[in-house]
Every structure is written in structure tokens, then in C-alpha cells.
Design goal:
Shape: globular
Low-confidence stretches: 1-10
Number of domains: 3
Strand content: under 5%
CATH topology of the largest domain: Hypothetical protein af1432
Radius of gyration: 25 Å
Largest sheet: 3 strands, antiparallel
Number of strands: 3
Helix content: 40-55%
Strand order of the largest sheet: 1-2-3
CATH class of the largest domain: Mainly Alpha
């Protein structure tokens, strides 16, 4: 039950619950906040009639520590918080408005007025008509792309993103457009390959606003996911914070692994007119070779050791990790077989 809850402040103040404020029931039960009139173990920390004062103090400190830790994680993974001008002044607000919302004080949700208003703009699904419209546009745009980044790559990433997104309960209205648009700009200039990431999310922004009337917060989330999805972004230190960005990155990286990953890396090497190279290292204990985000790796086999063999350990979702394990093992087996089959060249 929630009684006389404080207003949502903006910027949010820090709640004194559990530190300088707590509530005691007539039977001796105590909670970290007088507004939490609840008899469940979620909020009732113990009984002052049965516990020493140092035990009570320790439980209250743990409550505050748990809450602070969870709320900081939430604020650091919420695009609205990251962009908020009041971020450095924010105390993360009233616990009650989060705790009662979730019914579990260790898994609260952010209840800032700005967050709540933005969430109302985030619909959860993309209509069949909207997806069909995006699909047609992207397919046409990719006619001029290289063989490794044509529409079959997009189709696979979209399918993987839907699969992972459903498992993770991500917002597919954000994930699916991001998957369609993440590689929409062809890598025409191979001396500035990383620019395609920025150009892709710029094109996504214009299209989603103009033709599908996506809200600003929806567009921000889509472009954030695209920005975080590329390996080039990863090696420059860009980390996905939202669930949707994590889903897209895992989906995109999975399509660079396994049998399809092998086919794509050699297809791209042919497009770039690269030498085939050789397997010079042990794929089961590989060195991580340097990857230049501005241009292709010198050979397709080099690319395995600069990127592909390192994707598995950087997956972010549980489904992504499971899928990556199988695909990684397939690549290792391929590299070992190739190395074995070409070993005789060095012997004669």
C-alpha cells in the first residue's frame, strides 16, 4: 500500500529512506520508509524486538546500498538519463515510486517524470505495414552494396534480432527498424569504412521521422542501437547501454560468425580484391591482431584473428551467448581444417 507518496521531483532528490529515515510498526517490524506499509519480506527488514541495534543498522545500510547500486545501473543504461542536463544533480528520486511499481526493492524502475513521459512515446511493436515499408526501402537502397552486406545480411540480422529480442523482452518497435537500417549505407569508400555507421543512423533518422512518424525518443533509441552495433564502434570504446542496442549488436555479430560468417568474409575479400592469405596462428589459442576501423583487413584469414574469433566473448545477451558458442566452434574447426589441408605446402 502506498500512502501520501511524494511528488515526482525534477531533478530528482535523493530519498533519506533507510539512512536518516525509517518506520517501525506496532509489532516491532521496521521498514526503510514510512510510506511502505507492507507486511511482505520485500520491504520489512526485521523486528527491533528481536534484533540488536547493530544488526538493524547493518540491514538498513545494505538496503540503501542495494537501492543505490540498482538505480545507478538503471540511470547509466537509460538514454534519457544519459542526455539529461540535470544528470549530475540527480539524486535518483523517491524509492517508493519505484519500489511499489515493481514490488521488489532490488529491482526498481526509474520513475522520473521525464522518463515516464518518454515511455508513453515508446510503443512496443512495429506494424506489418510499417515493417513492409521499411523492408522495401532498405532492399532498394542495398542494391549497390557489396556482396557481404546486401539484403540477405539484413534479413538474417532482422531474424536474429527478433529471436533474441523476444527472449530478452526487448522493444521490437525499436530493435527491428535498427536491424533494417544498421548497414543501409554501402561501404563505397573503403578508406573510411567506419563512416557508414554514422551515415546509416542519419539515414534511419530522416526516414523514420518523415515516413513513419516515429517520435523523437523512438528515433533516439533506434539510432543509439545502430551506433553501438558495429565492430568499429566497439574497438573505439562505444558500449551498448540499452537492451535494444545489446540485442542488435548480438544479432549483427552472430551473422559474422559460423558458416555464414565464413561465406561473408571471403565474399567481402573478393569484393575488395584481397589476397586469400593463410591460417598463420592456432585458432584455439589465437592472438588478437590489430583491426583498423578505417579500412579492410589485409586478408580474410587475418580478419578471423582480428575480429571474428573475438565476437563470442563479447556477446551481451544469454541467447546471443548460446548461439555464438556453436558458431564460434564451427569457425575454429574450419580454420583448423584449412591449416591442416595446406600444411603440405610448407613441407615440399
Amino acid at each position: 500500500m502506498l500512502v501520501n507518496a511524494p511528488d515526482i521531483n525534477y531533478p530528482l532528490q535523493k530519498c533519506p529512506g533507510g539512512s536518516s529515515l525509517f518506520s517501525i510498526f506496532p509489532d516491532g517490524t521496521y521498514t526503510p520508509c514510512p510510506f511502505l506499509l507492507d507486511t511482505s519480506d520485500n520491504f520489512n527488514l526485521g523486528n527491533i524486538l528481536n534484533e540488536a541495534s547493530e544488526v538493524i543498522s547493518a540491514k538498513l545500510r545494505n538496503f540503501v546500498s542495494d537501492i543505490d547500486s540498482e538505480l545507478k545501473k538503471l540511470s547509466s543504461s537509460t538514454p534519457t538519463c544519459l542526455k539529461c542536463s540535470e544528470r549530475n544533480n540527480c539524486g535518483l528520486g523517491c524509492y517508493v515510486l519505484r519500489v511499489v511499481h515493481e514490488q521488489n526493492y532490488k529491482k526498481p524502475s526509474l520513475r522520473c517524470k521525464k522518463i515516464v513521459e518518454n515511455q508513453l512515446q515508446l510503443r512496443n511493436e512495429l506494424s506489418v505495414e510499417e515493417e513492409s515499408q521499411i523492408r522495401k526501402f532498405v532492399k532498394n537502397e542495398l542494391e549497390r552494396s557489396d556482396i557481404a552486406h546486401k539484403f540477405d545480411h539484413i534479413e538474417n540480422v532482422v531474424a536474429l534480432a527478433k529471436m533474441i529480442g523476444l527472449d530478452e523482452e526487448a522493444n521490437l518497435r525499436l530493435v527491428v527498424p535498427a536491424a533494417y537500417f544498421h548497414d543501409i549505407v554501402p561501404r563505397k569508400n573503403l578508406d573510411s569504412m567506419r563512416e557508414h555507421v554514422k551515415e546509416s543512423y542519419v539515414k534511419a533518422t530522416k526516414y523514420l521521422k518523415k515516413y513513419l512518424n516515429f517520435t523523437s525518443i523512438e528515433v533516439d533509441n533506434v539510432t543509439d542501437a545502430i551506433r553501438c552495433s558495429a565492430w568499429e564502434s566497439h574497438i573505439e570504446g562505444v558500449k551498448p547501454e540499452t537492451l535494444e542496442a545489446k540485442v542488435l549488436r548480438d544479432a549483427d555479430w552472430l551473422d559474422a560468425m559460423g558458416a555464414r560468417g565464413i561465406a561473408r568474409v571471403f565474399g567481402f575479400a573478393g569484393f575488395c580484391k584481397l589476397d586469400i592469405g593463410d591460417v598463420e596462428y592456432d585458432p584455439e589459442s589465437p592472438p588478437q591482431l590489430k583491426c583498423d576501423s578505417n579500412k579492410p583487413d589485409p586478408t580474410p584469414f587475418y580478419h578471423f584473428f582480428s575480429k571474428l574469433l573475438w565476437l563470442k566473448d563479447n556477446m551481451l545477451t544469454e541467447r546471443g551467448k548460446k548461439e555464438a558458442e556453436t558458431r564460434h566452434n564451427f569457425m575454429v574447426s574450419f580454420l583448423k581444417a584449412y591449416k591442416s589441408e595446406t600444411q603440405y605446402i610448407k613441407e615440399f
